[in-house]
């Protein structure tokens, strides 16, 4: 398992990344761009090292909001997906509303979120949930929809109730798709939490970044972005790991 | 510190209080942080949390709804909010005179409002901006319709003028000082020089009518502590700047100190005590806004502010 | 056991009785008749096969027996009782094995028991004992993807058997297997049938398979399906695979082939 | 065709929506919430009607940015997907970078976008592109990945080049998946444009909303949100229509 | 045409020549031998079948001929020329029909021509003329999903034919069809073969099918595959389906059955 994961570390991607960084550094120096226009990676790394204790401190809050929101999103998504699976009628009613919910630009209703939920962790969690539940709910619903109709019929002939069918067929069949959606949601979770903090907070990476940006320190802003991306990628890897442990049969089948 | 206090004095739970800033922590907020650092809130039995938005936020609804006990706002914003039935009240003027104005890099040549014709203005989308520019430009014999209004959103002044913007409305105490540090020459037109009605209070500390009604004592306690904080900042700019930096270590130390030195003498300025607001200033500006059709109705300015809670 | 027995069963006690069953589907706005007055019966413990060209409506007939579709006309009586629900008396094995990929073999074969609300551990214990009969001993904890085609079919058949129903409907269970595996599975199916003594109603394309396995064979016409031929297979049991080249066998084969190609 | 589309209008969803609106209206009146806390739908509708000319005027800019960005996103996504299809090596290198790109909170690099691209339509288009290319690229890549390996082999035996294989097999096979991703992207496009405007602009729905919100006119903000959602749903429907016209074989197959 | 002819062809001019071909795959870290010294040849215009149990390596053998896999040992010579690339001389029809669902029937059958860079319109015109021979007249503009199983197989075969190669590799083309359709397709295939006179190398599970169609039959052992039996089918052509119950036919069938089950 561990061996396989190590094997999966995207060496090529890291290579491309390194090349891009070198080009960026060179580009900044050659064109003589000022730091506030675009800080060179070397400056960003310096800032990262200098600010690391602070960054880690702020990260704790953001990560907590991201994880709580992601958990809430998963719960909401599962409930919605199961409800939609109960009948095509309900599905037809709920699905367009899900799409509708995604067309609302969150930052524009953000002030309202704060009026309603205050300054604690709550509005951040709400933002993360709003951003993350959609990919999970949709992939879960699509996965359940795509479950083998003949399996469903088989259970019907066995006398299964709709709930049994959902539990025994639809949910397990949708798990691979669920995890695919969860990975997307995981990618968005940190970003959502940062947006949430941006609306009003006393700590968190979002706060760090706005302060740095109002103090005209583009290198610190980039350092924070790096931390956010790093945590997001770790989250992504964690979800991949959980998915491999949860649905081994799926990965075994695919390997064939 | 708070825990020690509790243990020492016994049963009394500190009352928790939220303050919403209008922007990231800056020298407008020094007094709030000094009071926090010196434990003056705790002396009043308050446990204060300071939260901040990313961007020039409209704090009025948050204060009015009670999500924040106090907020940092502006007179124009309070006036606008009250005209829309948002029950928010200004309880102290942080700076006695309006230190804001229109800034542009020297090479743009905007040395008087007339020069703004044909230029691009970067604002943040408050309705007052249009009216104000219009008044100022027309007062100088210019044509406001020749100004292009752009909402710069999150972009800061230096980023904005680097791109498509010619001039913007800044606080000299922050952005102006930063430009001095950068060695960038600005033309700065202070608004109160251009139009007397525009010498309003900005920023101010606000609270909700509900809180005033339900717990006036809290407002008293809070303002007592804050006043001490600003008075300290007036007397000890360098020490105050150092305290502020402690709470916002991301901020540039040099900028902070310079800004604090600029602002410390201006907090109280010519007023008898820090935070004092004059009815005349409120009335004059509200009337001006009303005449410029910025308000759906004229507001009762005596309800919009009060000096009642300032320490004697 | 002889064919006689089962024919007697048929006369007096059909566990599946279809009379004049007709069904049509609406396809592209038009009525498409699928079944046209099909009458079929299966006696207790009897092995009956249904042959017909692809798309003639064999699976539809099974769906009607299972209660997944309602006939437009005609009568379906199970176990001699008009009010009996299909789920209580019929166990169905579709053409695809439909093993759930996320369940081990053991958990797959007890599926019907779990749906019925039986105790899972008990069902598992019972299933474990039968594993070797179904040639699956040692594979209890394997996932379906790890089995060969023939093993998968055996697991599916085991699941069908463990539902404890009197009537087994098998829809082309060996359709996907190669000739050699298929032959082995046929012989094995006869053994299992012999042991459990359930009525089996069996759909197939393969004429030899139908003859080799069955007590009786129904041959259907192309769509809309009617019974083109109804034949007793009076070959002695137990049967061995070599009999497929015996003259009796060939005569029956020719007869069915004619019925299939003439229509 | 038209008949089928009318048939597809989600009656149930509209019903649920109507019920929610009635509850909202009633809730506001019963609890006596002030308008700035949450405006009742009736106020929002009034504001919508009053502000309609202005809203439509601002919509033009936003829609233009959304459509341009969406088009750019599709082009970028297609190029990326095809490049990734060229070899597993490249795929391994590029895919993680795509994921990485989505972990960057756009609003935090917004000031940089403005420094780089100014206040014109460009930064909005960039934001929309950044938000939208990911779902399209991922679904296109997944769709190509999922193409029948035997078809690919068949073409190989016919002597096809990699590019011919991509053109004749991978791209058509991925179209259904592509359109699924495009629908998600379409849902996000308007939202992206509004965020872009919020970061700095002279006209557009984002600007309208900032102004309304600074003037404490929550009803106008909601009216703008309604317009955004409505346009997004129309965009969604348009993509659905295009997809039905482009891949009729897919829908015919599914109906079977 | 008689079998003699093709055996002569074989002696002097094999278009496919495999000598001592061996192949193994690494499965779960271990070497799994699939083909163990298989030698096979197909003469010009000859019809040769390959029978073997499922998973014995038949498709792997085809993949080696096509150049999709490289043999571990042994020699593959096509059209008597060691340097000839498979794509220039072989046309391959996989077990699944693999018609592209997004192309009309007409555009599907000209696929190989398009890949070769030929003019599309010209290829279409040519294809249109052959539509009726392949029983697809009137379906030029239909999508594959609208065709029956038999028609799909005919379209796939037409695509294989239109590639204009001298060697056709057909991998269980009729595996998915029902018995009746299958019989019809077999007869039709013989007609088409007769007309185009290409060498056909044909994989099947079905013993009757192999005998009915072929000039020669290779029977493979289970994995790792070796040639268990190599048989000339000296039945006169043209053949009619009734011959499957003829004694000569049955004798060959028995012989193959034994070879398959004994190993
Ligand atoms: N729900 C349905 N709606 C419309 N047509 C249907 C439906 N179910 C089946 N059919 C059609 O009815 C016909 C008979 O289908 P059925 O599956 O019963 O055939 P079959 O004899 O089992 O074929 P096969 O041997 O290929 O499994 C087919 O033409 C099929 O397309
Ligand atoms: N690329 C590969 N890697 C590992 N194992 C393989 C690979 N390709 C085929 N095999 C294995 O080789 C064996 C032979 O496969 P092949 O497809 O050639 O059999 P076959 O005779 O065509 O079977 P069938 O009649 O079922 O089509 C199988 O066990 C298969 O699992
Ligand atoms: Mg069927
Ligand atoms: Mg094969």
Give a written overview of the molecule.
The complex is a heteropentamer, with 2 copies of chain A (256 residues), 1 copy of chain B (312 residues) and 2 copies of chain C (263 residues). Chain A contains 11 helices and no strands. With 256 residues, chain A is an all-alpha fold. Chain A has 2 domains: 1-33; 35-255, MetI-like fold. The radius of gyration of chain A is 22 Å and the shape is globular. Chain B is α/β, with parallel strands linked by helices. Chain B has helices at 2-9, 30-38, 40-43, 60-65, 75-83, 127-139, 157-162, 172-182, 191-194, 209-214, 216-235, 237-247, 253-268, 279-291, 301-304, and strands spanning 15-20, 46-51, 70-73, 88-93, 100-105, 120-123, 148-151, 167-171, 186-190, 204-208. A 5-stranded mixed beta sheet of chain B has the order 2-1-3-10-4, with helices on both faces. In chain B, strands 7-6-8-5-9 form a 5-stranded mixed beta sheet. The model of chain B is unreliable at 1-9 (pLDDT under 50). Chain C has a domain at 14-98 and 165-262: Rossmann fold (3-Layer(aba) Sandwich), CATH 3.40.50. Helix content of chain C is 38%, strand content 25%. In chain C, the strands form 2 sheets. In chain C, strands 5-6-7-3-8-9 form a 6-stranded mixed beta sheet, with helices on both faces. Chain C has a 3-stranded antiparallel beta sheet with strand order 2-1-4. In chain C, 48% of the residues are buried. Mean pLDDT of chain C is 86; it is low at 1-10. Chains A and D meet through helix 2, helix 4, helix 5, helix 8 and helix 9 of A and helix 2, helix 4, helix 5, helix 8 and helix 9 of D. The structure holds adenosine-5'-triphosphate (ATP) (2 copies) and magnesium ion (2 copies). One magnesium ion (MG) is lined by residues 58-59, 95, 171 of chain E.
């Amino acid at each position: 398992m561990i061996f396989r994961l190590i094997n999966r570390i995207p060496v090529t991607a890291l290579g491309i990344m390194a090349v891009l960084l070198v080009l960026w550094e060179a580009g900044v120096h050659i064109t003589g761009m000022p730091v506030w226009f675009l800080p060179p990676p070397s400056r960003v790394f310096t800032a990262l090292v200098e600010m690391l204790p602070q960054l880690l401190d702020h990260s704790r809050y953001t990560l907590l909001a991201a994880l709580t929101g992601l958990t809430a999103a998963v719960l909401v998504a599962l409930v919605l997906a199961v409800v939609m699976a109960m009948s095509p009628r309900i599905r037809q009613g709920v699905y367009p509303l899900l799409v509708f919910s995604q067309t609302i630009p969150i930052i524009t209703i953000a002030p309202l979120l704060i009026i309603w939920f205050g300054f604690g962790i709550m509005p951040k969690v709400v933002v993360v949930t709003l951003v993350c539940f959609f990919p999970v709910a949709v992939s879960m619903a699509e996965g359940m929809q795509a479950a083998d109709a003949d399996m469903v019929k088989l259970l019907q002939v066995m006398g299964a109730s709709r709930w049994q069918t959902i539990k025994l067929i639809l949910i397990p069949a949708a798990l691979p798709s669920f995890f695919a959606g969860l990975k997307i949601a995981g990618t968005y979770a940190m970003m959502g939490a940062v947006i949430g903090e941006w609306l009003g907070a006393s700590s968190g990476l979002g706060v760090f970044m706005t302060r740095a940006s109002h103090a005209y320190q583009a290198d610190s802003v980039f350092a924070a972005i790096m931390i956010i991306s790093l945590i997001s990628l770790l989250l992504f890897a964690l979800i991949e790991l959980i998915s491999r442990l949860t649905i081994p049969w799926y990965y075994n089948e695919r390997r064939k | 510190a708070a825990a020690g206090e509790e243990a020492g004095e016994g049963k009394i739970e500190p009352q928790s209080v939220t303050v919403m800033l209008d922007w990231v922590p800056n020298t407008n907020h020094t007094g709030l942080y000094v009071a926090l650092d010196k434990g003056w809130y705790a002396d009043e039995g308050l446990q204060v949390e300071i939260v901040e938005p990313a961007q020039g936020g409209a704090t009025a609804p948050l204060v009015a709804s009670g999500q924040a006990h106090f907020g940092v706002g502006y007179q124009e914003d309070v006036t606008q909010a009250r005209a829309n039935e948002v029950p928010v009240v200004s309880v102290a003027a942080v700076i006695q005179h309006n230190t804001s104005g229109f800034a542009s890099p020297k090479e743009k040549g905007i040395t008087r409002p007339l020069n703004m014709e044909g230029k691009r203005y970067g604002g943040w989308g408050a309705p007052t901006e249009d009216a104000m520019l219009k008044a100022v430009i027309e007062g100088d014999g210019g044509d406001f319709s020749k100004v292009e209004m752009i909402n710069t959103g999150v972009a800061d002044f230096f980023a904005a003028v680097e791109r498509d913007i010619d001039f913007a409305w800044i606080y000299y105490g922050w952005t102006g000082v930063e430009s001095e540090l950068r060695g960038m020459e600005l033309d700065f037109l202070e608004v109160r020089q251009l139009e007397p009605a525009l010498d309003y209070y900005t920023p101010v500390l606000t609270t909700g009518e509900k809180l005033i009604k339900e717990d006036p004592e809290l407002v008293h306690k809070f303002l007592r502590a804050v006043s001490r904080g600003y008075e300290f900042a007036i007397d000890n700019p360098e020490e105050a700047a150092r305290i502020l930096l402690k709470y916002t270590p991301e901020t540039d130390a040099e900028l902070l100190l310079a800004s604090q030195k600029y602002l410390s003498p201006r907090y109280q300025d010519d007023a008898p005590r820090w935070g004092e607001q004059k009815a005349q200033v409120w009335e004059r500006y509200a009337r001006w806004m009303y005449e410029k059709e910025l308000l759906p109705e004229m507001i009762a300015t005596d309800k919009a502010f009060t000096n009642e809670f300032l320490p004697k | 056991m002889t064919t006689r027995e089962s024919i007697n069963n048929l006369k007096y006690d059909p566990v599946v009785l279809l009379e004049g069953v007709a069904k049509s589907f609406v396809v592209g706005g038009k009525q498409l008749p699928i079944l046209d007055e099909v009458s079929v019966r299966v006696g207790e413990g009897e092995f009956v096969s249904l042959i017909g060209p692809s798309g003639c409506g064999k699976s539809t007939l099974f769906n009607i027996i299972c209660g997944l579709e309602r006939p437009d006309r005609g009568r379906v009586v199970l176990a001699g009782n008009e009010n009996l629900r299909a789920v209580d008396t019929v166990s169905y094995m579709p053409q695809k094995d439909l093993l759930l990929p996320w369940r081990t073999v053991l958990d797959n074969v007890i599926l019907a028991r779990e749906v019925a609300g039986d105790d899972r551990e008990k069902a598992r214990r019972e299933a474990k004992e039968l594993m070797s009969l179904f040639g699956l001993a040692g594979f209890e904890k394997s996932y379906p993807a790890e089995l060969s085609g023939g093993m998968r079919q055996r697991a599916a058949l085991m699941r069908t058997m463990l539902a404890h129903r009197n009537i087994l409907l098998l829809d082309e269970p060996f359709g996907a297997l190669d000739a050699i595996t298929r032959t082995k599975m046929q012989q094995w199916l006869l053994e299992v049938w012999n042991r459990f003594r359930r009525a089996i109603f069996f759909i197939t394309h393969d004429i030899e398979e139908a003859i080799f396995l069955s007590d009786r064979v129904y041959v259907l016409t192309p769509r809309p399906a009617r019974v083109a031929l109804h034949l007793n297979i009076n070959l002695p049991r137990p049967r061995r695979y070599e009999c497929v080249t015996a003259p009796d066998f060939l005569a029956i084969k020719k007869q069915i082939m004619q019925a299939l190609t003439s229509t």
